[in-house]
Amino acid sequence: MTTDATFTSSTPSRPRATGRVTLADVARLAEVSPITVSRALRGERAVHPDLVARVKSAAQRLGYVPDPAARALASRHSAHVAVLIPMLSNALFVDLLEEVQRTLRAAGYQSLIGVTHYDIGEEEQLLREQLQHRPAGLMVTGLDRSEATRALIAQSGVPCVHLMELSEVPGVYSVGFSQADAAAALTRHLLSRGRRRIAFAAAQLDPRTMQRREGWRRELKLAGAYDATLEWLNPAPSSLALGGQMLEQILELKRPVDAIFFCNDDLAQGALLAALRLGVAVPERIAIAGFNDLTGSDQMLPALTTVRTPRGEVGAAAARMLLALMRGESVAQPAIDAGYQLMVRQST
C-alpha cells in the first residue's frame, strides 16, 4: 500500500503550459492505465472496487477535474444531458428538475438546463446551442414545437424523451399524463356537486393549458352545459394577482357563475385570497378549483380542490428511460402514463 510520503514524492508535476492535472497524471499516481482511470471515474461496474478506491484517492490528492470537452471529443458525446423546460419560476418544473438531476447524477451525468419561456423559436435556438456541446441525451417539455426543432432532434441522433405529455407516435419516447383527461375528471367533480355554469379561467395559454381547456369543454358538452362565453383566456403570465382579477371580473357577469376551474393553482390561490377579501363565500356562492396541487393549496381558506400532477414521478421515470436509451437498451414502454390524482377539498 502506498504511504503518504511515497505518494507525495511520486506526485507528477503539472504540465507547464496549462497547469492542469491530466487523466494521465492520475493514472501514473494510481499505477493503472488511463482507460482504467476513465472507467473508474465514470462508475463502470467492471472496475474492481480496490482500483476504484486507488483512482479516486489519486484524483482527490491531485485535485483532478475531468475535462468535459476532452471527454466529448473522445467519446463523440459528453456526460451532459440537455433539459429544455419552459420556466424556472414555475414550481412544477422545479420539482421535475429535482428528480431528473437526482437520477441522472447517480448515473454519472449532469443536467444542462435551457429555459424556453414557452417560445418555440427560443426553444429551437437553445436546442441548436445545446447540440454543439454533444449531449449524451436530451429532454424536452411537451410535444408542441417547430418543424425545424423536430428535424434537429431527429437528425442529431441523440436519444430524446418528452416530458409531461404522452405521444402515440412510433419512435417517440415520452413520460407524462393526459392533461385533457385530468381536466375532464375535475370538471366531472364540479358537475357532480350540482354546478352547471362552470367557467374556465386560464393564463399563459401554453399547449398543456389548452389541453386542459379541451377536457373541460368535452365534459360540459356531454352534460349539455357548455357555454363558450365562460372561457376566460389571458396570455399574460400566471400569478396570484391575475387570479384575483379574474375572479372579480367573473363575479360581475349578469348570469352568475357557480364554479371556476382555474388552469393552475396560483390563479386559484389568488382567487381564494380575493374572495376572502371581498367577503365572497366559497364554495357556497361560488366553487373554486385549480390544477397541479402546488405548495400551499391545502393550506388555503378554504383548502383548494385541485389535481395533483406527478411532476416528480415524471422527472424520475423520464431520466430512467433516457438512461436506458443512452446505454443502447431497448425500452419496452415508450410512453409511460404517470397518472394524476383528484384532490377534493373544501373549496368545492
Walk me through what this model shows.
The longest helix has 16 residues, at 91-106. Mean pLDDT is 90; it is low at 1-17. Helix 6 links the parallel strand 1 and strand 2 (110-115). Helix 2 (23-30) packs across helix 4, helix 6 (91-106) runs parallel beside helix 13 and helix 11 (240-251) packs across helix 12 (265-278). The chain contains 13 helices and 12 strands. It has a 6-stranded parallel β-sheet, sandwiched between helices. Strands 7-6-8-9 form a 4-stranded parallel β-sheet, sandwiched between helices. The chain has 348 residues and is an alpha/beta fold. The radius of gyration is 26 Å and the shape is elongated. It has helices at 4-9, 23-30, 34-42, 49-62, 68-75, 91-106, 120-131, 147-156, 179-192, 207-222, 240-251, 265-278, 311-326; strands at residues 80-85, 110-115, 137-141, 160-164, 173-176, 198-203, 231-234, 259-262, 287-289, 306-308, 335-337, 341-343.
- In percent, how helical is the residue content? 40-55%
Calculate the mean pLDDT score and round it: 90
**What structural class do the secondary elements suggest?**
alpha/beta
Give the number of helices.
13
Radius of gyration: 26 Å
Give the biggest beta sheet: 6 strands, parallel
Strand content: 5-15%
Secondary structure layout:
Blueprint lengths: L3 H6 L13 H8 L3 H9 L6 H14 L5 H8 L4 E6 L5 H16 L3 E6 L4 H12 L5 E5 L5 H10 L3 E5 L8 E4 L2 H14 L5 E6 L3 H16 L8 E4 L5 H12 L7 E4 L2 H14 L8 E3 L16 E3 L2 H16 L8 E3 L3 E3 L5
Parallel strand pairs: 1-2, 1-3, 3-4, 4-5, 5-11, 6-7, 6-8, 8-9
Antiparallel strand pairs: 10-12
Helix pairs in contact: 2-3, 2-4, 3-4, 6-13, 7-8, 9-10, 11-12
